[in-house]
Amino acid sequence: MLSQKEADELIELIKYLQQYNSVAIPSLGEKTQLIANSVEGEFIVDIRRGRIDVFQATFQTRYKKNIPLIRLDLEGPEHQNPDGMIIPCPHLHIYREGFDLKRAFPVETEAMGRCKT
Questions:
Q1: How far is residue 77 from each of residues 1, 3, 36, 89, 90, measured CA to CA in Å?
Q2: DSSP of 25-54
Q3: Which of 28, 55, 60, 102 could form a disulfide with 46 if both were Cys (CB 3.0 to 4.6 A apart)?
Q4: For 56-107, how does the pLDDT look when each residue is reduced to its tens digit (9 = 90+)?
């Protein structure tokens, strides 16, 4: 488990994708992993697409293979935070000490509404 200070520092680090000139978004139901480097070591960027909904996608950054730091869910089910609050999609999960990625925050953007029209 990371302290909040450690997690915040890792999140703020500049990361560089390794050996990628461009990134292809995976097909429906598929996922891909990219490696990013920083002064603190390697990070993994997961990109996952839903199987049916063309707008469902998840982007996640992990440290040391098993420590998720940030996850963006663009479309999909609502998320229930530990305090019972329901957060609709799109939402962003940011590491919080003692909660990992169990808390989500709403992401509101005009562009998200345009995707479905």
A1: 27, 29, 28, 7, 9
A2: PPPTT-EEEEEEEETTEEEEEEEEE-SS-T
A3: 60
A4: 889 999 998 889 999 999 888 899 999 999 999 999 999 999 999 999 999 9
Q: Look up residue 79 and give its amino acid.
A: H
- Cβ–Cβ under 8 Å, residues 89 and 78: yes
Counting beta carbons within 10 angstroms of the beta carbon of residue 111, is it exposed (0 to 12), middle (13 to 18) or buried (19 or more)? exposed
Give the Cβ contact number of residue 113 at 10 Å. 9
Q: pTM, whole model, 2 decimals?
A: 0.82
Q: Which two tokens stand for residue 25?
A: 């978004």
For residues 103 and 85, the answer to whether their CB atoms sit within 8 Å is: no
| Residue indicated by tokens 């996850």 | 71
Structure tokens at 14: 């500049």
